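Obj.: predict assembly geometry.
Materials: sequence records (below).
Method: joint structure prediction, all chains together.
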Amino acid sequence: MKIAVDAMGGDFAPEQVVAGAIAAAKHLDCEVVLVGDQDKVQAELAKDPSWENLKISIHHTSDVIGMDEHPGAAVRRKKDSSIVVATRLVKEGHCDAVLSAGSTGAAVASALLGLGRIKGVDRPTIATPLPTAKGGVTLLLDSGANVDSKPHHLVQSALMGSIYYKYVFGTEQPRVGLLNIGEEETKGNEQALATYPLLQAMKFINFRGNAEGRDITKGTFDVVVCDGFVGNVVLKFAEGLAKTLIKLIKEAIKDGGVFAKLGALLLAPALKKMAKRVDAAEYGGAPLLGVDGCYIICHGSSNAKAIKSAIDVANECVKNNVLEHIKECVAEEAVSANE
Amino acid sequence: MKIAVDAMGGDFAPEQVVAGAIAAAKHLDCEVVLVGDQDKVQAELAKDPSWENLKISIHHTSDVIGMDEHPGAAVRRKKDSSIVVATRLVKEGHCDAVLSAGSTGAAVASALLGLGRIKGVDRPTIATPLPTAKGGVTLLLDSGANVDSKPHHLVQSALMGSIYYKYVFGTEQPRVGLLNIGEEETKGNEQALATYPLLQAMKFINFRGNAEGRDITKGTFDVVVCDGFVGNVVLKFAEGLAKTLIKLIKEAIKDGGVFAKLGALLLAPALKKMAKRVDAAEYGGAPLLGVDGCYIICHGSSNAKAIKSAIDVANECVKNNVLEHIKECVAEEAVSANE
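Observations (raw structure tokens):
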């Protein structure tokens, strides 16, 4: 198995990406192909000479797509950019999965243009794993691939999310919720109202009704489905809220005098263990479901740990044949606008 | 000045509502009219005999609207319910403001049916204050009064939110953001794309472009405007996330041994001070803007502190003539679907 890693994508690329790849290669059995500027990647690899004993290779590319470029146009124009080449390696069968922490838009565009959609899927969807109060993970999707989705797009998301959850987290019948503003079937906007009965009618989906915002981290649903606009806002809100809380806690400790500082020191080990449970970097990657290949999207600010986790996710996806299972199930269920 | 308080609305009514009313009456100069079952309210008042020296009165009603009743139908049928009567007291000029921690749907319905909309406003909007990293407050609206809003509804929300912010928080030109999935003007769903130029064209609104989810608690915007579906999901998500984090921190302290417990004890005073800053109960009430009266909506689980804060908010609204300012400004700006 080979995993193509966009070595040039992300706020801390190539440094953190290469470090993450080395960390992953140390414990995984697959080969990591670093796609990017040979000299720059080599320079990062040289920082940890142990890499020479690992299954790591470099695939040189000369170009990079920046975070502020128009995704579609950049992917079409920059044929030798790291994300486009990494995607091509999968398309041509040289690699089994691809991951990138670069521009999400460019990743989605290169996946759509380079790999295409799975037959029967109209729109790809980003499935972001979120830690819950119960210790497990809830998959929030779509967390930003598409907006103004139609009800059948949400149903396709729910279906793909269920299959992903089943084969990656090993839960036989993942509990699916429709993100909404009330528990009752009669609540919601037009999109949610029209989606509810469609989800209810799907045999494969273990639909448990509406999920409210407060249910996302409660652990009562395994898969929560929503429009990419809402999912993206919720994810970024969580990110902002976490930063705000950490800032306020640090200020409180600083202003709290010697007792507060001592208390923080004593409490730190326990909190660090807890923080590990809710640290996004531990989950690392969000699969882009619905494209014809195993595609993992990482947060732009991914550190080495997040990249390593994302490579683990890609490895699990390939090992568990997630793509094949999704293809089979989508063909069987055939969810379309005409039904 | 008189403020009508729905004494029977909320998960902890009438106990916490009456306690909050007493706390507010102790420091405010206005009269608090407790609307509800006379015997029950009296029994709660009796717990703090000091109430007899305060400006508190009881307005008896025989009925209550439950959390699970259909709002519109219940408001029409239960003419003697606490929320309907409290609203009527404002309509008839006996009181200057009304507040309720009961069913939000019933509050919105009784406001619409009992007071009607301000001329020029198509839909009311709930403006929820959220604490920010910088110590101030960001107003998120609409946080759940309406879904599937049209662009001009969002513009009306932004206008009313700006006026409210200006007169209640004393900021001359509140910075307004449009909640979206990217900073660029070209990003977003159809609703956001169509709303952007309308906001830009409004003279009264200090529009600062798109706000992403992570900006909501950053303190870089004073007013963030969005569809009620998105606002409601974000608020409930914040609520759920806060509960999840507190649960995880408590578990971490419990499992962390004697050092962690000692650390928590030493750190507690500093954290309590910080928690006060982000405690929703400190902000208490969210004004329902756009109806022809001063209407404050409280969270269903409001405790006495939250009710007291909400009465403070109602007092500020009335004292600062927020309703008149909104009426004037809406008449001047005349935002409608036809423009």
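Conclusions so far: Chain A is about 50% helix and 15% strand.
To do: check interface contacts against the pulldown list.
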